[in-house]
Design brief:
The structure holds 2 protein chains of 2 kinds.
Chain A (H helix, E strand, L loop, with lengths): L6 E2 L4 E3 L4 E3 L7 E3 L14 E5 L2 H9 L4 E4 L5 E3 L2 E7 L7 E7 L2 E5 L21 E6 L11 H17 L3 E5 L5 H8 L7 E3 L1 H10 L9 E2 L6 H4 L3 E4 L7 H4 L4 E6 L6 H7 L3 E3 L7 H11 L3 E7 L1 H12 L2 E4 L7 H5 L5 H5 L1
Parallel strand pairs in A: 3-4, 4-5, 5-6, 10-11, 11-18, 12-15, 12-16, 13-14, 13-15, 16-17, 18-19
Antiparallel strand pairs in A: 1-2, 2-3, 7-8, 8-9, 9-10
Chain B lengths: L1 H11 L4 H14 L2 H10 L11 H11 L4 H11 L2 H8 L11 H11 L4 H13 L3 H9 L11 H12 L3 H8 L10 H5 L4 H5 L6 E2 L1 E2 L13 E5 L4 E8 L2 E6 L23 E11 L2 E2 L2 H9 L5 H6 L2 E11 L2 E2 L5 H14 L7 E3 L8 H9 L8 E6 L7 E2 L4 E5 L3 E12 L8 E10 L2 E8 L5 H13 L1 E5 L2 E4 L4 E6 L1 E4 L7 E4 L2 E5 L11 H5 L3
Parallel strand pairs in B: 1-12, 2-13, 8-10
Antiparallel strand pairs in B: 3-11, 4-5, 4-6, 6-7, 6-8, 8-9, 11-13, 14-15, 14-18, 14-19, 15-16, 17-18, 19-22, 20-21
Helix pairs in contact in B: 1-2, 1-9, 2-10, 4-5, 5-6, 6-9, 10-11
The chains are: A alpha/beta, B alpha+beta.
C-alpha cells in the first residue's frame, strides 16, 4: 500500500495532511528545514521551521526571512501530524525530521553521518516505518577511516609545510567542513587564518560550539605574518588572485571525493584528505538497519545502486526518487562573491 | 613493495612535473637495482602478460568484499579504474611485508601458469595484507597497461638525473628488445653491449601539428614537403643479416609483417629506415582498417598476406653503413636515401620512396594540401632541410599540416561515464545519423568539448535517461554535435555500414534541432 503521508512533488517533499514541505526546492508557504546548506534551505519560503542552532545560520545566508527555531525532540503538531527534529550529525544544527501520523512513522534524513565530528550534535537512530535517506556516497568504494587518523595526517601535513617554509591552504565549505577542520587542527603548530566567508559563518557557530581562535585575513594582513601558518578558504578561491598573494603555499582539499585518485587530480590540489560529513557505505547500511524500517526512499547520490542493494540483498521495499538535493556537489561548488573575498 | 607503493602515492599526490621527476629520481637512487629495472620496464610498456583475466579478478574481489558482483561492476563504472576499485572495496589489515617489487613480479609471472584455485588463493591472501595504496599498486600490476600518469619520457628524465647521464642517450639505451629477465639494471643503463644494440631502434622524431598557415615558417626554400601517409609509423632495421620492424609504440612488430623480411635479400647491411607501413591494394592504398587487420591477428595467415600485403613508404634514413647519421641534415639524409633506393632491384615492391612535393611558395603548398586527400594521404609533412633527426616530440623542424577534417552533424543517443579524471561525468558518447526516419549509430566520441560543456551534457544525460543497459544510458535524442573525423571506409562490422577514423566533437550545435542532423546517406557520400 502506498503511503499518503509524504509525497514527492515538483516543489519538494510534501506532507498532504499537514500542508507543509520538507526541504522544498521551490518557494512554498511552510518549510521544515533540516540544515543550512544551500540545496536544503532555499530562498523564498513564507515560513522556515528549523532547529534553534540552524536558525541563525539560515538567517545569515538568506537574509530577512521568517524563521522559527525548535528544540531537539520538541513536539510540533500540525493538523494531527506530529513532527519533531532530531540530530543528523551532518553539520552543526543539522536535523533529521520525524513525521508521525495515525501510527505511521517516517524519517527524512536530509544529510547525515554516523561519526561524532566533535562539533555537531551526534546522529541519533530513530525507529520508523519509512526512511527517506540521502546516499551521496552510496557505493561500497567509500569506507571512511576514523577521523582521528585523518586529522593526524592533516596536522602532519601542516607541520611539514611549515618546516619547508610554506603556507598551508585548506579548501573547505564555509559551513560545516571549515569548522570541523578548525576544531581538530593542532593550534600548537601555528596560527589559523580564515577567509572572510568562513570567518563570518564561524562567528555564528561560536555562539553554540567551542572553536579555537582564528584570524580573519583582511587587506591589511601583512603577508609575512601568514607565512608558514594555515589558511582555511572556500574551494572557489583556488587559483584566485586573492590566494596568489600568499605564495609560497601548498593546497589541500578535505572531502569524501578525495577517496578517488581522479578527483584530487581534477581539483588540481596538492593533497587530498578523505574526510566527509556524509555517511559512507557501511554507515548508510547501519543507519537503515538501526531504524528498523521496511521502506526506504533514496533521495540523492547513487540512488539507483543503493536502493537496488537494499531491495535485493536486504529484502527492503526501496526505491529512488529524484530530488534537487546535490549532496557534496553543492558544497564543493560554493561560490564566494569577490567583495567578501578581501574584507 | 612498500617503497614502490609509496612512490606511486607520492607521484599521485602532485600535479607538478618537477616534483614527479624528483620523486622518481629519488626512487631510482635508493631502490634495489632489480626493483629499479622492473620500474623502468613497467613505465616503458614492458609489463609481463596479464596473469589472470579481469573477469576472474572482478569475481574474486567482489567475493572478498562480500558484495554481489553487480554492485562491484556498478562501483567499477563509477570509480573508472579496476585496480582502484579493487583497492577501495576490499578491506585489509596492512602487514609489515618485506617482499620487494621484483619478487612480486616474479610471483605474478609464475601465477600465470597456476591452476585457477591457487591463483584465487594467492590473490585473496595478498590483497588482504595490504593498505589501500599497496593494494592499488599491486593490482595495477595485473590489470590493463600500467598507466599512472607517468610517461616514458618523464621516467627517462628522472632516470637520467639519478644516473647522471644524457637523457637522449639514455632514451636510446632503453629502447629495443629487452625484458627484466634478459638484462640487469647495470647492463641496461650503464653498459652497452653489441648484442643489445643489434635490434635497438632509434627514438622516433615526432612532428608537431601546424595550427595556422605555414607562412610563419619563413622562407619556403628552407623547407621540403611530402604527403602525410595514414599508416603505421615504423622503423625498419637491417643489421647483421637480420630485419627488425618497430612500431612507434616501441613494439617489435616484425612477425606481423613477415613480407618485409624479404628485404634482407637486397638491402645493404647497417641500414635503418624511417617510414610508414601501408597496405597495397592493386594500384591504390588500403584503408587503415585493412592495416589494423594485420596488427590484430596473433598469426598472420596466408590469406591475409595475399589480401592485405604491406609495403613501407620510406622518408628518412637514420643509419647508413652501420653508422648513426641522425646528426646530418635532412637534405643529406634524403639524398642518401634516394641513392639507396636507386640501388634496389626494379621489381621489388616492399619499399617505396615518399615523393617530395615541389613548391615555390606557401600558396602553392596550400594548393597541394587541398589535393592531399585525393592523393590518398591525410595532409602534408613539412621538414626543415637543414635539421638533424630529433628525439621525441620537439617543436621546430618537423610539422604536420593535416587536411581539414570531414564533418557531419549527428545526434547524441547514448552516454557512458568517462574514465580517470572524468569518472564522475558522462563524457563518452555515441552518435547517430538519420536513415529512413530512424537514428542509426555511426560513431563514438569522448573529446573536443570544454569541461563546462561536458558538465552541461552530463546534466542533460542524468535528466534525460530513457533506458539503462549496464553502464550505458540511452538518452532522449535531442542534442546535436558537429562530429569531425579523418577518414571513412566501408565496414561490415558497423550497423551503419561505415567506419570513421578519429571521430571527435568539433562543436555543440545548440542552434540545431535533432531533425536537422545529417543522414547516413550524407555520410556515405564521403566514401
Amino acid at each position: 500500500m502506498k503511503s499518503q503521508l509524504l509525497r514527492f512533488t515538483k516543489k519538494g517533499i510534501y506532507c498532504p495532511p499537514a500542508g507543509v514541505y520538507l526541504d522544498p526546492w521551490r518557494p512554498v508557504e511552510k518549510a521544515l528545514i533540516t540544515h543550512g546548506h544551500s540545496d536544503h534551505s532555499r530562498w523564498g519560503h513564507q515560513q522556515y521551521i528549523t532547529h534553534h542552532h540552524n536558525k541563525p545560520i539560515i538567517e545569515h545566508r538568506l537574509g530577512n526571512i521568517n524563521a522559527k527555531g525548535i528544540a531537539w525532540g520538541e513536539d510540533l503538531t500540525i493538523n494531527n501530524v506530529k513532527f519533531s527534529f532530531h540530530p543528523a550529525g551532518h553539520i552543526p544544527g543539522s536535523s533529521q525530521i520525524r513525521v508521525e501520523h495515525k501510527g505511521e512513522v517516517w524519517v527524512f534524513t536530509g544529510d547525515y553521518k554516523l561519526e561524532n565530528d566533535g562539533i555537531s550534535t551526534p546522529w541519533e537512530p530513530l525507529k520508523c516505518h519509512g526512511f527517506i535517506s540521502e546516499c551521496t556516497f552510496g557505493i561500497p568504494a567509500f569506507n571512511w577511516r576514523p577521523q582521528e587518523e585523518v586529522f593526524d595526517d592533516i596536522n602532519t601535513w601542516w607541520m611539514h609545510n611549515k618546516a619547508d617554509g610554506r603556507t598551508s591552504v585548506l579548501f573547505a565549505y564555509s559551513l560545516g567542513k571549515a569548522q570541523r577542520l578548525l576544531k581538530h587542527l593542532n593550534p600548537d603548530i601555528g596560527q589559523i587564518y580564515t577567509h572572510g566567508a568562513i570567518e563570518n559563518m564561524t562567528e555564528i557557530l561560536r555562539s553554540f560550539t567551542e572553536l579555537p581562535p582564528t584570524i580573519q585575513i583582511t587587506k591589511d594582513t601583512p603577508k609575512a605574518e601568514i607565512a608558514g601558518n594555515l589558511i582555511i578558504a572556500p574551494p572557489s578561491t583556488h587559483g584566485s588572485v586573492w590566494l596568489r598573494k600568499f605564495t609560497p603555499f601548498v593546497t589541500a582539499s578535505a572531502s569524501g571525493w578525495m577517496a578517488f585518485r581522479g578527483a584530487r587530480r581534477r581539483r588540481a590540489v596538492d593533497r587530498g584528505f578523505v574526510l566527509s560529513d556524509h555517511a559512507d557505505w557501511p554507515g548508510l547500511l547501519q543507519a537503515v538497519k538501526e531504524t528498523g524500517c521496511e521502506r526506504v526512499i533514496a533521495t540523492h547520490g547513487y540512488t539507483e545502486v543503493f536502493s537496488r542493494y537494499l531491495r535485493e540483498e536486504m529484502g527492503l521495499d526501496a526505491r529512488a526518487e529524484s530530488t534537487e538535493y546535490e549532496g557534496d556537489t553543492a558544497e564543493e561548488q560554493e561560490k564566494v562573491t569577490s567583495d567578501t573575498t578581501v574584507e | 613493495m612498500k617503497d614502490f607503493a609509496l612512490l606511486i602515492k607520492d607521484l599521485d599526490s602532485t600535479n607538478s612535473t618537477n616534483k614527479k621527476v624528483k620523486y622518481l629520481s629519488e626512487y631510482f637512487s635508493t631502490a634495489e637495482p632489480k626493483d629499479r629495472l622492473w620500474t623502468i620496464a613497467l613505465l616503458s610498456h614492458r609489463r609481463p602478460k596479464r596473469p589472470v583475466n579481469t573477469t576472474r579478478l572482478r569475481e574474486w574481489a567482489s567475493e572478498l568484499a562480500s558484495i554481489p558482483l553487480w554492485l562491484f561492476e556498478e562501483s567499477y563504472h563509477i570509480v573508472g579504474d579496476l585496480a582502484e576499485t579493487i583497492a577501495l572495496v576490499i578491506p585489509g589489515e596492512p602487514e609489515a611485508e618485506t617482499i620487494s617489487l621484483h619478487q612480486r613480479m616474479e610471483e605474478l609471472i609464475a601465477l600465470r601458469s597456476l591452476p585457477e584455485e591457487e591463483q584465487k588463493e594467492y590473490l585473496s591472501n595478498t590483497w588482504m595484507t595490504f593498505d589501500h595504496y599497496e593494494r592499488f599498486a599491486f593490482t595495477k600490476l595485473l590489470t590493463g597497461g600500467f598507466r599512472i600518469g607517468i610517461s616514458q619520457k618523464l621516467m627517462t628524465r628522472a632516470l637520467a638525473r639519478a644516473t647522471e647521464q644524457e637523457e637522449d642517450i639514455l632514451a636510446y639505451k632503453l629502447m629495443g628488445n629487452w625484458t627484466p629477465e634478459t638484462t640487469t639494471f647495470h647492463d641496461l643503463v650503464y653498459s652497452d653491449s653489441k648484442e643489445a644494440q643489434k635490434s635497438r631502434p632509434y627514438p622516433f622524431y615526432l612532428a608537431y601539428a601546424l595550427e595556422d598557415a605555414p607562412d610563419q615558417l619563413g622562407d619556403p626554400t628552407e623547407w621540403m614537403a611530402e604527403y602525410k601517409w595514414d599508416g603505421i609509423r615504423g622503423q625498419l632495421i637491417y643489421r647483421d643479416g637480420e630485419i627488425f620492424v618497430w612500431s612507434r609504440g616501441e613494439e617489435l612488430v616484425t612477425d606481423k609483417f613477415p613480407e618485409l623480411e624479404g628485404l634482407s635479400s637486397f638491402l645493404p647491411d647497417g641500414v635503418v629506415l624511417d617510414g610508414e607501413i601501408l597496405v597495397r591494394k592493386g594500384n591504390t592504398l588500403g584503408s587503415f582498417n585493412d592495416l589494423q587487420k594485420r596488427l590484430g591477428r596473433k598469426t598472420v595467415s596466408k590469406k591475409l598476406l595475399e589480401e592485405n600485403p604491406v609495403f613501407m613508404m620510406v622518408y628518412d634514413l637514420l643509419e647508413w653503413e652501420g653508422k648513426d647519421i641522425r646528426q646530418r641534415s635532412q637534405k643529406e639524409r634524403r639524398s642518401l636515401l634516394e641513392q639507396l633506393l636507386r640501388q634496389l632491384p626494379d621489381q621489388q615492391d616492399l619499399l617505396a620512396l615518399s615523393p617530395l612535393l615541389p613548391f615555390n611558395s606557401w600558396e602553392e603548398l596550400s594548393a597541394l594540401r587541398d589535393g592531399a586527400r585525393e592523393a590518398e594521404s591525410e595532409g602534408l609533412m613539412i621538414k626543415s632541410r637543414q635539421a638533424s633527426y630529433g628525439v621525441g616530440r620537439k617543436k621546430g623542424d618537423w610539422w604536420k599540416w593535416k587536411v581539414d577534417p570531414l564533418t557531419i552533424d549527428a545526434v547524441l543517443t547514448y552516454a557512458m561515464r568517462g574514465h580517470g579524471r572524468r569518472t564522475n561525468l558522462f563524457t563518452d558518447y555515441t552518435f547517430a545519423l538519420w536513415d529512413q526516419g530512424e537514428l542509426v549509430t555511426f560513431a563514438k566520441a569522448y573529446s573536443g568539448l570544454s569541461d563546462a560543456e561536458f558538465r552541461e551534457v552530463d546534466r542533460f544525460v542524468k535528466k534525460n535517461t530513457t533506458d539503462r543497459f549496464g553502464p550505458v544510458r540511452q538518452v532522449t535524442p535531442e542534442l546535436v554535435f558537429e562530429i569531425a573525423f579523418e577518414g571513412i571506409a566501408p565496414s561490415s562490422r558497423h550497423k551503419s555500414g561505415v567506419a570513421v577514423r578519429f571521430p571527435r566533437m568539433l562543436r555543440w550545435r545548440k542552434d540545431k534541432k535533432p531533425e536537422e542532423a545529417n543522414t547516413l546517406n550524407d555520410l556515405k557520400a564521403f566514401l
